[in-house]
């Protein structure tokens, strides 16, 4: 008999079989082997095999911003899948056009890239960055024969494919894979603007673009000071270097603005920016936005993808953009983020020898510990809270943006208790 996966629960025998099949997956993740996520609703995840319920402060790594099993998203996926799932990029489809228009209009209306002009739709964050890098290189190639290098920053994360990895600094991710795309220079974002400027000026004929996360996510939740981003844009514009903001983690309302760069004055807006993660609330869809200057450098055939902008993902993306791209929704993210930061500040005051810093914007918050908080993460998990780290020793708080005040309190009290048990 046909069993409808997803609507009916798996039996305990099926769940046991599932967890027993770990040996068939490659070992690229260190997952706890006593946890099998089976369901989610809002900011709560369930493991029906072990009869456990978790407050989710991870949102699938800043993805399910409108909550797990969001009913509107499910309905859109269901309705759209009966209409049209995929038709390729050889033809226009209505959903992909609607989403592109919405992204450009909402971006401009909500203080993002003021000259946002066109959108390239794809499926993952890494691909959105690959597109951004290629677009910057194409623009550079029209200005000079050697102008295809990229400036990136230490502590950055931009993805795992060979191109995106080339601008990702972490040696652990890079070194096993030999030669990457040549022409990347890593600078330290903490350096004085004069140092960054001297480097860019001296290599201006070889540098096509600069890529930066306005809030470094995987590196440990480091918001880049506005003056730095303003200065960088000015230096880059003076040297014909295209500025790319990677908003894959910090975009889509995460910081309390639609895009993190919307906190900047318009002259500091990027030429290109990438988005993914929350854009599909878990359905893989991503986007690369460009201004007219970049678009003018692009021609038919310069880039492509089979799945990008398929009607299923685009239909979800439209709903997510409408919901997150709303002033009231964004104000609520700021309010909740401040409440979380206030509680964490109190905790820091209680454990100054173990907690060393608190950073963040909106609901993208990092609490840094003196040492890698491995035991704390496990203690939280055992007590019903899923939470992740970033960088070497930072606990990262990126819950669904729709998390309720009660769920925040529930999660924070589990966290505080776990801190007390581990460090008290
Ligand atoms: C800032 C940033 N860029 C790029 C990526 C890669 O995105 P994806 O995993 O969807 O390819 C990530 C993923 O964590 C990210 O945080």
TrEMBL record:
It holds the Pfam family Aminotran_3. CDD domains: OAT_like. Keywords: Amino-acid biosynthesis, Aminotransferase, Pyridoxal phosphate, Transferase. Its cofactor is pyridoxal 5'-phosphate. Coiled coil: none annotated. One of its GO terms (molecular function) is N2-acetyl-L-ornithine:2-oxoglutarate 5-aminotransferase activity. InterPro entries: AcOrn/SuccOrn_fam (IPR004636), Aminotrans_3 (IPR005814), Aminotrans_3_PPA_site (IPR049704), Class-III_PLP-dep_AT (IPR050103), PyrdxlP-dep_Trfase (IPR015424), PyrdxlP-dep_Trfase_major (IPR015421), PyrdxlP-dep_Trfase_small (IPR015422). It is found in: Mitochondrion. GO terms for biological process: L-arginine biosynthetic process. Belongs to the class-III pyridoxal-phosphate-dependent aminotransferase family. PANTHER family: ACETYLORNITHINE AMINOTRANSFERASE, MITOCHONDRIAL, AMINOTRANSFERASE CLASS III. This is Acetylornithine aminotransferase, mitochondrial.
């Amino acid at each position: 008999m046909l069993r409808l996966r997803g609507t009916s629960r798996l039996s305990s025998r099926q769940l046991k079989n599932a967890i027993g099949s770990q040996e068939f997956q490659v070992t690229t993740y260190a997952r706890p082997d006593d946890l099998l996520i089976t369901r989610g609703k809002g900011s709560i995840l369930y493991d029906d095999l072990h009869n456990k319920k978790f407050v989710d402060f991870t949102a699938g790594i800043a993805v399910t911003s409108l909550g797990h099993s969001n009913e509107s998203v499910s309905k859109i996926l269901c309705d759209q899948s009966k209409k049209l799932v995929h038709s390729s990029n050889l033809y226009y489809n209505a959903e992909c056009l609607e989403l592109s228009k919405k992204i450009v209009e909402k971006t401009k209306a909500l203080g993002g890239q003021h000259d946002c002009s066109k959108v390239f739709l794809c499926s993952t964050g890494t691909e959105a960055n690959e597109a951004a890098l290629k677009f910057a290189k194409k623009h550079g190639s029209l200005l000079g024969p050697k102008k295809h290098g990229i400036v990136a920053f230490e502590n950055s994360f931009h993805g795992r494919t060979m191109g995106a990895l080339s601008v990702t600094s972490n040696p652990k991710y890079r070194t096993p894979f030999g030669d990457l795309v040549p022409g990347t220079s890593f600078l330290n974002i903490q350096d004085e603007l004069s140092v960054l400027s001297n480097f860019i000026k001296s290599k201006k004929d070889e540098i096509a673009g600069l890529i930066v996360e306005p809030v470094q996510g995987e590196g440990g939740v480091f918001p880049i000071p506005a003056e730095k981003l303003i200065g960088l844009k000015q230096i880059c514009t003076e040297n014909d270097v295209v500025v790319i903001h990677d908003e894959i983690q910090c975009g889509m309302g995460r910081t309390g603005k639609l895009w993190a760069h919307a906190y900047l004055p318009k002259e500091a807006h990027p030429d290109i920016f990438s988005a993914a993660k929350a854009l599909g609330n878990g359905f893989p869809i991503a986007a690369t936005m460009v201004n007219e200057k970049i678009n003018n450098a692009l021609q038919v055939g310069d880039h492509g993808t089979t799945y990008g902008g398929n009607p299923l993902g685009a239909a979800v993306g439209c709903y997510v953009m409408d919901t997150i791209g709303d002033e009231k929704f964004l104000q609520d993210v700021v309010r909740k983020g401040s409440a979380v930061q206030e509680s964490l500040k109190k905790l820091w005051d209680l454990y100054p020898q173990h907690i060393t810093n608190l950073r963040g914007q909106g609901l993208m918050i990092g609490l840094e510990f003196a040492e890698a908080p491995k035991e704390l993460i496990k203690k939280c998990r055992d007590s019903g809270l899923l939470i992740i780290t970033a960088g070497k020793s930072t606990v990262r708080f990126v819950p669904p943006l729709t998390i309720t005040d009660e769920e925040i309190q529930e999660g924070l009290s589990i966290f505080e208790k776990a801190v007390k048990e581990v460090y008290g």
